[in-house]
Design a protein that fits this description.
Blueprint lengths: L1 H56 L7 H21 L3 H14 L19 H23 L5 H34 L1 H22 L2 H24 L3 H10 L2
Length: about 250
C-alpha cells in the first residue's frame, strides 16, 4: 500500500511537472509569436514610411502616372499585410485614404520663371536629385524582394536615369549662369552648349522642348554679343597700320 502510494505521488509529481512544462512552452511560444508579429509589423511600417515619403515628395515632373500607380499599389499591399496582424479602425482608415491619394496627382513643377532651369535654386534641384536616387534604390530593392519583374524595373530605372541626368543639367545650368555673370559670355557659352547637347539627347523621352528652346535662345544671344565684342576689338594688323600711318 505504501509503495503504491509513493508511486501515485511520483506520478502526480511527474504529471504536474509535465503540465507546468507544457504551460511554460505554450507561454514562450505565444511570446515568440507575438514578438515575431511585432517585428514583421515594424518592418512593414518602415516600408510604408519609405514609399509614403517618395509619394509625397518626389517632384511632379518625375512622378509620372505609372510610377505613382506603382507606389500607391505597393502601399495598398503593405497596409493589407498590416491588417493581417493588426486589424483595427486606424489601419483600415489608412488603407481607405489611399483612394483619395490616387485621385489627386501631384503638381508638375516644370520650368522656373526664368525659363532656363527646372528650379529657381540649387537646394530644390539637389533635393529633387536625391529623391530620384532614393526612388531608384527602392526599385532595386523591390525587384530583389520579388515585388517587381526585371523588365518593369528596367523601364522605371531608365526613367530615373533620365530624371537624374536632367536634374544634373539643372545644377550645371545654375553653374553656367554664375559663370556668365562673373566671367562673361565668351567663357560661359561653352558650358551652355555642353548642357544643351545632353538635354537634346533626353528630349525624345522627356519632352523638354521649352527648356531646349530657351537655352538655344540664350546661346544665340551670347554668340551675337561675342561677335559684337570681337568686331569692336581692333586687330593687330589694324594697330600696325594705324601706327605706320602716323609716322
Amino acid at each position: 500500500m505504501v509503495a503504491m502510494g509513493l508511486a501515485e505521488t511520483a506520478i502526480f509529481i511527474l504529471v504536474g511537472i509535465a503540465v507546468m512544462a507544457g504551460v511554460a512552452i505554450a507561454v514562450q511560444t505565444a511570446e515568440t509569436n507575438r514578438q515575431e508579429r511585432r517585428l514583421r509589423v515594424l518592418a512593414i511600417r518602415d516600408q510604408i514610411r519609405r514609399a509614403e515619403h517618395l509619394l509625397e515628395n518626389l517632384p511632379g515632373h518625375v512622378q509620372y502616372p505609372d510610377l505613382r500607380l506603382l507606389l500607391i499599389t505597393y502601399l495598398e499591399k503593405c497596409w493589407r499585410r498590416i491588417l493581417q496582424y493588426e486589424s483595427n479602425t486606424e489601419n483600415k482608415r489608412q488603407l481607405e485614404a489611399l483612394t483619395n491619394v490616387s485621385s489627386n496627382p501631384p503638381e508638375n513643377s516644370l520650368i522656373s520663371s526664368g525659363g532656363i532651369t527646372l528650379y529657381n535654386d540649387r537646394n530644390s534641384a539637389a533635393k529633387a536629385k536625391a529623391l530620384v536616387r532614393e526612388m531608384a534604390q527602392m526599385l532595386t530593392d523591390l525587384e530583389r524582394n520579388g515585388y517587381l519583374q526585371p523588365e518593369t524595373t528596367r523601364f522605371h530605372m531608365q526613367r530615373m536615369k533620365d530624371a537624374h541626368t536632367q536634374l544634373t543639367c539643372d545644377l550645371e545650368l545654375m553653374d553656367a549662369q554664375e559663370t556668365l555673370k562673373n566671367a562673361g559670355s565668351k567663357v560661359a557659352v561653352h558650358q551652355f552648349r555642353s548642357i544643351l547637347l545632353k538635354l537634346q539627347r533626353l528630349n525624345a523621352r522627356l519632352q523638354v522642348d521649352s527648356q531646349v528652346f530657351a537655352i538655344n535662345h540664350l546661346i544665340e544671344q551670347m554668340e551675337r554679343k561675342i561677335a559684337a565684342e570681337e568686331e569692336e576689338q581692333p586687330t593687330s594688323s589694324d594697330d600696325e597700320n594705324s601706327s605706320s600711318g602716323t609716322v
